[in-house]
Amino acid sequence: MLASCANAETGETAQANGEIVATTGPAFPFKTAEVADLEEPWAMAFAPGTATLFVTEKAGAVKLVDTKTGETATVPGAPQVAYGGQGGLGDIAFLPAEASDKLGTRTIYLSWAEAGEGDTRGAAVGKGKLVCTAPTACAIEGLSVIWRQTPKVTGRGHYSHRLTFSPDGKYLYVASGERQKMQPAQDTAATLGKIVRLNLDGTPAAGNPMAEKGGVTAEIWSMGHRNILGIDWDAQGHLWEIEHGPAGGDELNLVKPGANYGWPVRSNGDHYNGDPIPDHEPNDGFAQPALSWSPVIAPGDMLFYTGDQFPAWKGHALIVGLGSQAIVDVAIEGDSAREVTRHEFENRLRAIAQGPDGAVWVAQDGKGAKLLKLTAR
How many of the other CB atoms lie within 10 Å of CB of 326? Predict the structure, then answer.
């Protein structure tokens, strides 16, 4: 059985073993154009209201791509990052409420791996201002840390640190990986292996499931997660996340407040050394995945498609795969999900974004990566 994190981070190619659970699309429903070259891209987001795409690169750079002209530029003001393993510069997000057809000045959020005392590290989230004086002249100013994973631990894996805002724009949700330590995912005194729900300034949001307990426990929205690498909202305003399983058992979960998704007590995969983990079962006390994969797809990112350019994708989750090297198309049916098809590429895929015209943008993984624009045939 394939190991999700191994395929995701070492560059190994996923091998079929006769247990494929979904069909492969017979033909791409899109045209593909290479737009820019990138070095280890990790996340990307359009500044709302514009055609300007911002991309984080793992070693610590923020790149700007004017998708109308293809011009690129580096955006100064990014934080110092603990680069190595799975760590480095992470997600990037903008407030939807600040949408404008001019870049101007707007709020920017970034996440990254941050060094601690001794040989420890943890994810951090910062808030600052993006100040643009021309279409390809932007800088990040006043960036300051508003949230940190607790505690910082050794190792360089499973930061997760994906960001999303609630549909009403009032709250920031942060995916916090369990840092390959497993047991902290079940410890409510730690934010490892959790999704946290924060005010826009990084403080715990009122009404969180354990708000009355104070401290970092008051930040927790859901728990029992492993390594979340995609998080987004469906058309009904429900939050979903995609996470890496161990050897098998990648999961797509509908996120509910106070829910426990079972890691490391339950998983549809096994430990890398072959030791079994009890599978998810009804009435086992844990939230069940809406969909799981064995062999794994090794997800890199996810979005819900809302555009008109690809009608067959509207309302679907599009998951880009590292080990699977594919866009995995998943239909959502209430609380459940099913894989429709997957569109295979020749490279590992790390990040996905939807453009203002409904085109889909995909970033390959690793050094010498390409930024691809997918448009309807």
Answer: 23
DSSP lists the bridge partners of residue 31 as 375
- Predicted confidence at residue 129, as pLDDT, reads 98
Residue 351 in this model has a pLDDT that exceeds 60: yes
Give the tens place of pLDDT for each residue, 154-212. Answer: 999 999 999 999 999 999 999 999 999 999 999 999 999 999 999 999 999 999 999 99
pLDDT score of 27: 61
Residue in the block written with tokens 């903008």? 94
For residue 54, the domain's CATH number is 2.120.10.30
- SS3 of the chain: CCEHHHHHHHCCCCCCCCCCCCCECCCCCEEEEEEEEECCEEEEEECCCCCEEEEEECCCCEEEEECCCCCEEEECCCCCCCCECCECEEEEEECHHHCCCCCCEEEEEEEEEEECCCCCEEEEEEEEEEEEEECCEEEEEEEEEEEECCCCECCCCCCEEEEEECCCCCEEEEEECCCCCCHHHHCCCCCCCEEEEEECCCCECCCCCCHHHCHHHHHEEEECCCEEEEEEECCCCCEEEEEECCECCEEEEEECCCCECCCCCCCCCECCCCCCCCCCCCCCCCCCCCEEECCCCCEEEEEECCCCCCHHHCCCEEEEECCCCEEEEEEEECCEEEEEEEEECCCCEEEEEECCCCCEEEEECCCCEEEEEEEEC
Residues 179/122, Cβ–Cβ less than 8 Å = yes
Q: Percent of the chain having pLDDT more than 70?
A: 93
Structure tokens at 3: 């190991």
The pTM is what?
0.93
238 is catalytic: no
In what side-by-side order are the strands of the sheet with 160-165?
160-165, 171-176, 194-199, 220-223
Number of structural domains found in the chain: 1
Range of the domain at 249: 4-376
Residue with tokens 């590290």: 121
Evaluate whether 113 touches 95 at the Cβ level (below 8 Å). Answer: no
Question: Is residue 28 very low, low, confident or very high in pLDDT (cuts 50, 70, 90)?
Answer: confident
